[in-house]
Structures are given as structure tokens and as C-alpha cells.
Design a protein that fits this description.
- The protein has 429 residues and is α+β, with helices and mostly antiparallel strands.
- Among the domains are: 2-63, Nucleic acid-binding proteins (OB fold (Dihydrolipoamide Acetyltransferase, E2P), Beta Barrel); 170-268, no CATH class; 290-397, no CATH class.
- It is built from twelve helices and nine strands.
- It has helices at residues 123-127, 170-178, 184-212, 219-247, 254-262, 271-304, 308-316, 327-340, 347-359, 377-385, 392-397, 408-412; strands at 2-12, 17-22, 29-33, 46-54, 57-63, 89-93, 106-110, 144-146, 152-154.
- The strands form three sheets. The chain has a five-stranded antiparallel sheet with strand order 3-2-1-4-5.
- α4 crosses α6 (271-304) and α7 runs parallel beside α9.
- The model is unreliable at 101-155 and 423-429 (pLDDT under 50).
Length: 429
């Protein structure tokens, strides 16, 4: 079953994956695919993850970005009573001689500045979270983001978040019910944590038996029973996840669909597994095509509206690993970047364009004509930092770019296992 766990990112591996461990502890620990992480992830981040306690250990399903701490604004919050009476009253004596035989005329008026809030604001509104400087923000207001140059870019409304996968335990309970009564505790331990959980349970039970002077549980025989039950539980676990995904196949993320299909045991001779693999593959192919078409359409619309930065931001967000921009749209995007990244463009606009191009899939095809003649030191430094991602900036800034690394797969293959060069051999006489 899916559960929540706080994890800490410890390092980044070469195969587009990260290592993690439980926040504040040495274990549990493992690896997580880079595609499941949020933008801007870095070593030392502590984030909340949705994990599945599987038979082979802990599997991370999704990782949420850590929430930013709200900075103190150094304001003093005034907490008042629920009444509308002024906090301070002042009685002023009227000028002139007082009337004899009667009370003196007094005038009561609230002191200026007694209520530290805005005019007409009740102290209860301040406790409710109203901001004294900007006022209450309407719930339907458009959110804005500020880039490093100070410009404000308007965001479009976010799309609805995909649904989370909550598998049931129907097939796993059926496997447990089919076991012998004395084997069910072994199956329950396998459901909790796989073979490591069975070994821990055996060690704990033997420790108690040794203290009580009772015979210990045979380790090898128990593990042999667990290994016989494990394949059935693996298939049952996958069926529970696949059926839960099939119910909301059009609403969960494509990453979840791909992870379920990747975990399918296609060698198992199970009719249910074969049918669900075919159905989920068809849904994944259909949805990937729809998402790719919509993505390409949004990039083309932003480019048609002369919103180059937005088009580059959209081009960097691939809806599917296999998604690509059409050749015609790629050429239009590259031409628009080359036309705007010229010496006549201001430095602040250059920095925005460099940041957007560096994250886009066309970063190696862009060739600016030249930096501004009055380029600021910040722009020169920022261009040097991104020369590795945009090779054409190296010639403009005088930076030598190292050659690209070897392919990842070839780099991992030991030299002894690579095919040897053809050599001439002679047979022994």
C-alpha cells in the first residue's frame, strides 16, 4: 500500500537517478529515478515522497517539492477583542469655564493611530491572515513569477493534478487465503517488506524462543517456503496495482503508467497479466499521442503570439520521453532565437533568453550573432556559466568547451567485455 515518507537526497548517479535515505536516519535507503523528482532538485533536499512497501523493498512512486519556509516580515501583529469599540478612548476638557451645578461637557473621540490596521479593518481580519500592505488577494487572481532580472512573467492557470494510485489488496489477500494456516505469517511478512522482513521476523522469533528455552525456528526451511510464495505474491501485487491504474487510466500520470508496465512480469503465464498489459499499453500509447499533439500545439501558439520565452519554456517540458518537436517548428523556434539574440537586444532580455534556451531541446542549434556592445558583467558571467549547454556562447565569451562525454552505455561496459579487434591467427601444427 502507498504511504508517505520523508526522504533526503544524498547524491546523483550517472544513470539519471539519485540516491536517497530516510530523513534523519541511515536507513531505509535506495535510489529514485530523476524523472520522478521536481525541478531544481539538489543534494541535501528533504522532501515528502509517496512510496510503496513492496516485496523487494521500498519503491518511490512520486516526490513532492519541499515547501519553502515563510520569511518573517518583522511586523507586530495586534490582537484585539471581538468588540468594535476603540482600543483607546481620550476625554478632552472643553475650553471655557465649566457650568456650575452640572457635569462638565466632555467629548470622546478615538485616538488617531490606535488601530494599527488599515482604516475600517477589524483586528479579527488581521488574525485571519490579511496582509496590511497589499490587502487581501482575490482567490482568482493570476499568479506571477519574478526571474533573476526582475521581469515579471504571467503564468497560465495550472492544469489539474493527476490522480494518485491507491491499489487495493484483493489479489494479495487471495494468495494469503490459499496458503496453509502455518504459512500465512510468512506471507504477511512478505507483504510487509519482502524477504528482509521474513529474515527479521525469524531472528526476532528465535531470540524470544532462546530466552524462553523453546526450540528455534529452522531458518533455511522457512526461507525456502518464503521463496516459493514470493513469485505468487509478486504477481498479485502487480495485479492490484494494474487494476487500480486501469480504473483511472485516463487520469493518472504517464509516469505511473510506464512504471506499472515496466514492472510487469511478461514471462509469467497468467492470462490476467497479459490482458492488463495489453490494455494499459493501448491507453499509454493513446494518451502519449494526445499529450504530444497538445504540447506541440501550445508551443506553436506561443511562437505565433511572439511569446518566445514561453515557447522555449513549453518546449523544455516534454510530455513523454519519446516526444519531439516537428522539424518545421524546431526551425521556426531556432530562427526566432537567432533573430532576437543580437547585439541590439538589451542585457536583461539576453539573460532571460539564455536561461530559457539553456533548458530547451534546441540549445545546441541556437547561434546568436553577438552579445550587446554594452553587455553588463552579470550577462557575461551568466553566458559563461551556460556555455556548456549552449555551445555557441563559448565563442562569444572566449570559453573553451570540453568535448562531450562518451555515451553512457559504452562508458559502463568493461573493456574486457567489448568485442576484440580482428586479428590474424594461425593454427598450431
Amino acid at each position: 500500500m502507498a504511504t508517505k515518507l520523508e526522504i533526503e537526497l544524498t547524491s546523483q548517479l550517472d544513470n539519471d537517478s539519485w540516491t536517497w535515505r530516510a530523513a534523519g536516519a541511515r536507513s531505509p535507503k535506495g535510489t529514485v529515478a530523476a524523472g520522478l523528482l521536481y525541478d531544481g532538485a539538489k543534494i541535501g533536499d528533504v522532501a515528502k515522497a509517496e512510496v510503496s512497501m513492496g516485496l523487494d523493498g521500498i519503491e518511490i512512486l512520486a516526490v513532492a517539492a519541499p515547501s519553502t519556509k515563510k520569511q518573517a516580515d518583522n511586523r507586530i501583529e495586534l490582537l484585539g477583542s471581538s468588540s468594535d469599540e476603540p482600543l483607546v478612548t481620550v476625554s478632552l476638557k472643553k475650553k471655557g469655564r465649566p457650568n456650575r451645578g452640572g457635569p462638565r461637557d466632555t467629548a470622546e473621540r478615538p485616538r488617531r493611530g490606535a488601530d494599527r490596521g488599515r482604516p475600517g479593518q477589524n483586528p479579527r481580519d488581521r488574525r485571519a491572515g490579511a496582509t496590511p500592505d497589499n490587502g487581501d488577494r482575490p482567490s482568482g487572481s493570476t499568479r506571477t513569477t519574478h526571474n533573476r532580472t526582475g521581469n515579471t512573467e504571467r503564468r497560465r492557470p495550472n492544469r489539474p493534478e493527476p490522480k494518485r494510485l491507491h491499489p487495493k489488496e484483493i489479489h494479495r489477500r487471495e494468495v494469503l487465503a490459499s496458503l496453509l494456516p502455518e504459512h500465512r505469517p510468512i506471507g504477511e511478512a512478505l507483504m510487509r517488506g519482502g524477504l528482509p522482513a521474513v529474515r527479521s521476523a525469524i531472528a526476532e522469533q528465535n531470540a524470544k524462543a532462546l530466552a524462553a528455552g523453546e526450540p528455534e525456528t529452522p531458518v533455511d526451511a522457512t526461507l525456502k517456503i518464503a521463496e516459493d510464495i514470493l513469485p505468487r505474491l509478486r504477481i498479485a501485487t502487480w495485479l492490484d496495482r494494474a487494476e487500480a491504474a486501469m480504473e483511472i487510466a485516463n487520469e493518472i500520470s504517464l509516469k505511473d503508467l510506464r512504471s506499472i508496465l515496466a514492472a510487469a512480469d511478461r514471462s509469467a503465464k497468467n492470462q490476467q497479466v497479459t490482458e492488463l498489459v495489453g490494455a494499459l499499453t493501448e491507453v499509454l500509447t493513446s494518451r502519449a499521442g494526445i499529450e504530444t499533439d497538445r504540447w506541440q500545439r501550445e508551443v506553436a501558439e506561443a511562437l505565433q503570439e511572439n511569446r518566445l520565452v514561453r515557447a522555449l519554456r513549453l518546449a523544455a517540458k516534454l510530455p513523454d520521453p519519446s516526444a519531439k518537436l516537428p522539424t518545421e517548428l524546431t526551425q521556426r523556434l531556432v530562427s526566432a532565437c537567432n533573430e532576437e539574440m543580437t547585439a541590439q537586444t538589451p542585457s536583461d532580455r539576453w539573460m532571460v533568453l539564455i536561461d530559457a534556451v539553456a533548458q530547451s531541446p534546441i540549445r545546441r542549434q541556437v547561434h546568436p550573432s553577438g552579445l550587446p556592445s554594452d553587455a553588463t558583467p552579470e550577462l557575461i558571467e551568466f553566458a559563461k556559466e551556460n556555455a556548456g549547454r549552449i555551445p555557441s556562447l563559448a565563442a562569444l565569451t572566449g570559453v573553451s568547451v570540453p568535448p562531450p562525454p562518451r555515451p553512457e552505455i559504452l562508458a559502463k561496459v568493461p573493456r574486457t567485455s567489448r568485442p576484440a579487434k580482428h586479428t590474424t591467427t594461425t593454427d598450431d601444427a
